């Protein structure tokens, strides 16, 4: 059980091979423009590489030959959730409905989806916010809710793109501690510029530069 991805995309000057072991969190680091977000987008199914192959838990996500032909599993069917810098909650739904959305779309009934949502909101310390709309949340609160929504979807792989970038320095440590707890034993990739995130969250680190793997530890 693992993720193995090889992707080449000329338009982004990306040419990488990266693996994540089962239950591990990989930190993806490197300077601006190194290709970190592009690689997450390829794994999430939001960006199509020219050629490459990705296998998650033994299941092929894509396998594109030199002509770009081959199997391609669409984003919604990958078991992969991308948590972006901006929490991107559905503005017209309550916090509870936002978190229940994942279980609902995976076929859970209304009651079971809401129960799962309550449980995840409690896990991230956001249960009192359940009936608010996203517009009534602070940035840190919205990120907590976004974490709950991501986990409620029960992804096989969680991708986090600079999850603390929009938070001030007082909110970041609490969310980092929350992620440290919820990522334990899960497969995840976290893009970060902050050595504190690597230290707190990662089992392994891959550094990208100019769209290439420049180091791994
Ligand atoms: N929407 C886009 N269209 C075309 N090229 C893009 C787009 N987004 C990024 N790029 C280019 O792709 C390359 C990789 O960018 P990417 O955003 O993946 O890097 P990054 O490591 O995530 O950077 P940052 O740390 O600034 O977020 C860069 O050369 C960038 O200019």
Care to give the gist of this entry?
The chain is an alpha/beta fold.
Structural commentary:
The chain starts with a strand and ends with a strand. The relative contact order is 0.20. The chain has 2 domains: 141 residues, Rossmann fold; 64 residues, no CATH class. The radius of gyration is 17 Å and the shape is globular. α5 links the parallel β7 and β8. The model has no long low-confidence stretch (mean pLDDT 93). 31% of the residues lie in helices and 26% in strands. Strands 6-7-8-3-9-10 form a 6-stranded mixed β-sheet, sandwiched between helices. A 4-stranded antiparallel β-sheet has the order 2-1-4-5, covered by helices on one side. α2 runs parallel beside α4, α3 packs across α4 and α4 packs parallel to α5. The protein has 6 helices and 10 strands. By secondary structure, it is of the alpha/beta class. This is ABC transporter domain-containing protein. It comes from Kocuria turfanensis. InterPro entries: AAA+_ATPase, ABC_transporter-like_ATP-bd, ABC_transporter-like_CS, Molybdenum_import_ModC, P-loop_NTPase.
Characteristic terms for this protein:
2 domains; ATP binding; 6-stranded mixed β-sheet; ATP hydrolysis activity; 217 residues; globular; AAA+_ATPase; Rossmann fold; single chain; alpha/beta; ATP-binding; Molybdenum_import_ModC; 4-stranded antiparallel β-sheet; binds adenosine-5'-triphosphate
């Amino acid at each position: 059980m693992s993720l193995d991805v090889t992707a080449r995309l000329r338009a982004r000057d990306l040419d990488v091979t990266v693996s994540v072991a089962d239950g591990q969190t990989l930190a993806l680091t490197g300077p601006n423009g190194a290709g970190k977000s592009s690689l997450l987008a390829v794994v999430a199914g939001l960006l199509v590489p020219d050629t490459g192959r990705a296998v998650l838990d033994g299941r092929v996500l894509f396998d594109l030959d030199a002509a770009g032909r081959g199997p391609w599993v669409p984003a919604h069917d990958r078991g992969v959730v991308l948590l972006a810098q901006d929490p991107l909650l559905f503005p017209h739904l309550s916090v509870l409905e936002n978190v229940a959305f994942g279980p609902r779309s995976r076929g859970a009934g209304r009651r079971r989806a809401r129960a799962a949502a309550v449980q995840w909101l409690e896990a991230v310390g956001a249960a009192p916010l359940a009936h608010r709309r996203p517009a009534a949340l602070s940035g840190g609160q919205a990120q907590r809710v976004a974490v709950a929504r991501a986990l409620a979807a029960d992804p096989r792989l969680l991708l986090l793109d600079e999850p603390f970038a929009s938070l001030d320095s007082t909110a970041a440590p609490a969310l980092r501690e929350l992620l440290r707890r919820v990522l334990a034993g899960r497969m995840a990739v976290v893009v970060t510029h902050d050595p504190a995130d690597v230290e707190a969250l990662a089992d392994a680190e891959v550094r990208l530069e100019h769209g290439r793997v420049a180091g791994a530890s």
